[in-house]
Structures are given as structure tokens and as C-alpha cells.
């Protein structure tokens, strides 16, 4: 199992993940929101994320609101962020880009 990342490591790795931010309410979580062109594409993104998460045995929290898909990632068993979270975030962003789903800047997140 991965070790917890330090704040410095998290900040450095988030520079390579422009879609993702640390959650303002819970700094042990990174979040991203994506806006799909239509509902079916948003659901396809969720389906792709589910496949990736299952392969990694690491599952995000997912919230679907019409064409917006919000994901939150943390290693709950460690009580914070690990390299596994960073890798999952990269893979989610890759799937979103492949499907033409754009990241949406969240007002409630801090980076």
C-alpha cells in the first residue's frame, strides 16, 4: 500500500494535473469536475472511470448531475492522499480527454 504524500508532494504533483484540486473542506481529498457535451457522454465517462478504478482496485466517489460529473479521490484506508490517488486522477483525466469531456473549474475547491 502506498504511503501518505506530504503537502509539498501533493502540490507538486497537482501541477501536472490541471483538472484536479485539493478539496477546500477536506484537504485529504482531490476533486475534479467534468462537463460532458450531453448526458450519455457523461455516463460513458463514468463507465470508463469505473473500469479504470476496478483495474486499480481504487475507487473514487462519483456524483453525476446531468452533464456534470464530479469525482473525489482519497485513500480512505490511509486517511489521506497517496500516489494511488494521483495515478487514478491522471487516468481519469486521460479518459475525459479521450471522450472530449472538459474539466470545469470548481468554485469550492482550493489548489
Main features:
111 residues; 6-stranded antiparallel beta sheet; 23% strand; Gyrase A, domain 2; disordered C terminus; alpha+beta
For the record, the CATH architecture stands as: 2-Layer Sandwich
- CATH level-1 class: Alpha Beta
Tell me the name of the CATH homologous superfamily.
Transcriptional coactivator/pterin dehydratase
Low-confidence stretches: 107-111
Our Rg estimate from Cα atoms comes to 13 Å
What percent of the residues sit in helical stretches (DSSP H or I)? 25-40%
Mean pLDDT across residues = 93
Strand content: 15-25%
Shape: globular
Give the number of domains.
Answer: 1
Order of helices and strands: HEEHEEHEE
Structural class: alpha+beta
- What composes the largest sheet? 6 strands, antiparallel
Number of helices: 3
Q: What's the β-strand tally?
A: 6
End-to-end distance, in Å? Answer: 26 Å
Enter the CATH topology name.
Gyrase A, domain 2
Question: How is this structure best described in words?
Answer:
- The protein is an alpha+beta fold and 111 residues long.
- It contains 3 helices and 6 strands; from the N terminus they run αββαββαββ.
- 39% of the residues lie in helices and 23% in strands.
- Strands 1, 2, 3, 4, 5 and 6 form a 6-stranded antiparallel β-sheet that branches.
- Helix 2 runs antiparallel to helix 3 (83-99).
- The two termini are 26 Å apart.
Amino acid at each position: 500500500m502506498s504511503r501518505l504524500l506530504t503537502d509539498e508532494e501533493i502540490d507538486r504533483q497537482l501541477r501536472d494535473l490541471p483538472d484536479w484540486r485539493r478539496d477546500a473542506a477536506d484537504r485529504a481529498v482531490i476533486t475534479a469536475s467534468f462537463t460532458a457535451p450531453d448526458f450519455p457522454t457523461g455516463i460513458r465517462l463514468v463507465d470508463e472511470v469505473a473500469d479504470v478504478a476496478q483495474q486499480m482496485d481504487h475507487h473514487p466517489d462519483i456524483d453525476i448531475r446531468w452533464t456534470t460529473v464530479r469525482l473525489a479521490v482519497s485513500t480512505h484506508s490511509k486517511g489521506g492522499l497517496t500516489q494511488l490517488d494521483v495515478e487514478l486522477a491522471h487516468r481519469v483525466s486521460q479518459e475525459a480527454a479521450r471522450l472530449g469531456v472538459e474539466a470545469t473549474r470548481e468554485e469550492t475547491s482550493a489548489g
